[in-house]
Predict the structure.
Amino acid sequence: MDEIYLEVYSLTQLCLAPIETIVALFTVKYCNSKISIKLVPSKQKPLERAYTIDISTFVYTVMDANKIPSSASSCELPIIIVNKTSCIAGLCAILRQIVKDVTAEYPEHHCRKLLGFKDSCLTACSEASVWTKFCEVDLILTLKFLHADDAICNELPSSMAKFEYHMLQPVRLHNLYKYTMSKKFAEENGISRDKTRIPEHTYAEGSYITLADIIIFVCVHILLTIFSGESIPELLPLTVKWYEKMMEDQFIVDSLECLPSVKKQTSNEHSYTLPKVANESLYKSDPKRYKPRSRIYTRQDDVEQSLELFKNLNIEMRLDLEPFGADLSIDWSTVPFDATPEGGSLPPARLKRKQEQLENMCKPVMKLAKAGDVIVDFCSGSGHLGILLAYLLPYCTVILLENKEESLNRAKVRVKKLRLANVKFYQCNLDYFKGDFDIGLSLHACGVATDLVIQQCIRRRASFVCCPCCYGSLHDCHHLTYPRSNAFRKDMNRENYMVLSHAADQTHDEKNVKTKQGYECMAIVDTDRKILAEQFGYKVYLSKFIPKTCTPKNHILVGIPRKETLKTECVD
């Protein structure tokens, strides 16, 4: 049976806990899940708000934080331990697992619908999906840092306004036509499949309840209790209508028994206003989010202006002639089939190039690794890199960390065939991982992900081996901002930097007129990454794969912490 580890601040019947624990236990109750609950007492963090939940109807075990499994202590709670080698972290991911556990045993269970159309509800990570970020980050942070003073001010939290405007928009669903014409939609709405009908925005994602509604309901239930008053129905008519619709679900009503009423901090006469937020959908696919005038295009004049600005910084931009570890070699004839790219079911056209990429990534790791080291393959996908390293370095532990369940499942099959005992699987966003490790890797982690990997490594004083990708996808997020280094931030603004990052994706082929410029822009962005690591006491090697034709995105950054530098806890 899966085990869920949840943080709590007290262990009385009315238990004090962070909002993530409240949402998780409410979902357990809604699904009537039999998952093994482990409550981990901890000290309430400064400035964070705690909420009460009645735990008298739950079956649970109290666990000392110092005695929980290493995989549970290596990630931010809540976390689900599937077995000795596999775990799941992150609010959306663990809630999906709760539902999947129940429906695996009872396929017709009422909670099955929570996974959404094609079981895709909240599968995308918060860095890539505006919707997941709202449910897993924005709304949760609103509750985490909500204080008494907030309830007596005139303005409602921005997340409440965002949800109201989201409900005002037309439904935005991927493959909306296929969905509305599907048998599932017809059965749920009592209509003939031969009639095209656009679903009403009854719930957060469309015409039926999903896991997103559960998360939002718990948060809104608390918020509507705290921010009470006659002005609320006028300011949030669609939110109130949605809330009343949710309360028609008997499973919601039954689950509410575990949520004691939050003490009202305002009188009913208090009047509120809505903060100014964009009147738009929270779905990334909504075209209103991406108006052409607000998009960045790589106009040549802009690129040349940004390149000139970089030259004025007088920053040395130099690539090493050979990658770190180029003196080593890999005998592929000794590598088992299931540890090769072919064993990973890659098409023949990609095999040679993938093998060359893996070889370039493995060599520096083989040169750095020592017996007993923990190596984390961030954004591991189906494990091409991590599985090969686990075979080549049997004296090291390799963690495959990936957000997509399907990719990890493919990796698990290969690891089982190879009988590798030194591989662990973490299904989560990389920012939820907080364990100690010695070497961090990423091969073609898209856009921001590469910088998140380097950030994780710097925080843990771990070496890093990174091959960046998708430079045009760089953007400020709740984790970090651009430019990265102090040297770049001094005289280069974000707009000029983003022009260069977009131009860095124009590495098409040798004959294309933009290719040379594209590689120059790639080198500029990666020099920024190199200088950032050097700020924190790293020796950094920046070079190209050999041969450089194995991929257009062929830069490799190898960072090694200098022994005389101290561990740092803050990289933004």
About this structure: The chain has a mean pLDDT of 89. The chain has 20 helices and 14 strands. The CA atoms of residues 288 and 294 lie 11 Å apart.
